[in-house]
Amino acid sequence: MKIKTIDLIMAALFAALMGIGANIAAFLPPISGVPLTFQTIIAILAGAVLGSRIGTLSMVVYALIGLVGAPIFADFSGGFGTIFGSSFGFILSFIVMAFAVGKIVETAKRPSLPVFIFAGYVGLAINYVIGTTYMYGALNLWLHSPMSYASAWVIMIPFLIKDAILTFVIAIASERIYRSLKRPTPTKKHAA
Amino acid sequence: MKLIIGQFVPGDSIIHRMDPRAKLITVFIFVFIVFLANNPWTYGFLLAFTVLGILVSKVPFSFIYRGLKPVLFIIIFTFILNALFTRQGDVLISAGWFQLTTAGLKQAIFISIRLLAIIVVTTLLTLTTSPIAITDGLETLLKPLKKWRFPVHEFALMMSIALRFIPTLMEETEKIMKAQMARGVDFSSGSLVKRGKAIIPLLVPLFVGAFKRAEDLAMAMEARGYRGDVGRTKFRLLKWHGRDTGLLSVLAVLTAALILMRG
Hints:
The complex is a heterodimer of chains A (192) and B (263).
Chain A: H1 5-22, H2 39-67, H3 88-107, H4 113-141, H5 149-182, H6 186-191
Helix pairs in contact in A: 1-2, 2-3, 2-4, 2-5, 3-4, 4-5
Chain B: H1 2-5, H2 14-17, H3 20-33, H4 40-57, H5 61-85, E1 91-95, E2 98-101, H6 102-128, H7 131-141, H8 152-182, H9 192-198, H10 200-223, H11 242-261
Antiparallel strand pairs in B: 1-2
Helix pairs in contact in B: 3-6, 3-11, 4-6, 4-11, 5-6, 7-8, 8-10
């Protein structure tokens, strides 16, 4: 597998942005109510802007630097111990998400707003299916706190509703960011 | 500052000075051998190994507690659940539907020790080893995968770059946020949709800035002759000492003890 230098760095920077997005709420002036995390939007953008291959790579890097101890998962957590936590599935789902969104945007010849909205919701579905299933597995297999699959989903419903609304706004944002990033820069023009 | 250091607590204990490869191997094996324990003796060994690790590392207990906090609730919950719903052995306390049996208490203690041991030992790795050192260790350990064309070097480099740029991008995020707030963007009030929309003027310049930075860095690296790991030398060299062999020997003894003593 050969990776171009620029792709390597882009993947690394997206992984870093993921880490910031996860905890951005902590930097915003005091927030009341719903906690915001921008991980979903950045995972979607990674797929859309970097493509399925490099986008996936960057999410793998994000998961890895979190595992080696940088506190870049939600709530400033990190370290190998997080694998055993109940929310590690969401971290894994970002990898699949970036890949799926990348594939969708790559397939569309000229990605327009509906494509981004569709990709966003596919991403959200992947996010919750993998995340909730992992939580269910973690609770039953090694945390020994048996819980039915249905009640695992019931816990997630409030978050799902919040994210379903946000994904719509986020899809609009992704389209805008996608446009501003795809604008040719001196080096890109040169390469083309 | 918190983010730059991460979980890592700088120190000079023997565990801090150990080779990251030795610590990585130990943690990976430990996570598996934990499941060998099935009686008081073997769980005692696990607990002893864990406590010894904490004492030798000289990491203040508050840091270990911080690592445990996210799972502490689950451990307590598991403990109560197992204690109450195992109905075997002699009854210790009984009041109405509430019943605590010896088997239930034993089961609850064992499972809690298992969870605690796994989490404390894995946390101890990231508490005593900097992320960069772990990345270096992983790169060396995973080198054999290169035969199957797995980009080990590229992954290690991406991890190092990401770790290096988190503080920089964080600063940039704060700067952009202040700049946009000065222009009247309201990040902290309004409905969910309104707040979602407010992040657009934050994210667009952040991503555009990151892209520019990436291009500059790529150009700088290529201008200095970067071409993957072909003939690359290292600034930080890993050295295997006696203490690293010692750690693996202790682990081997623990494994043997667990296999011999399990019922």
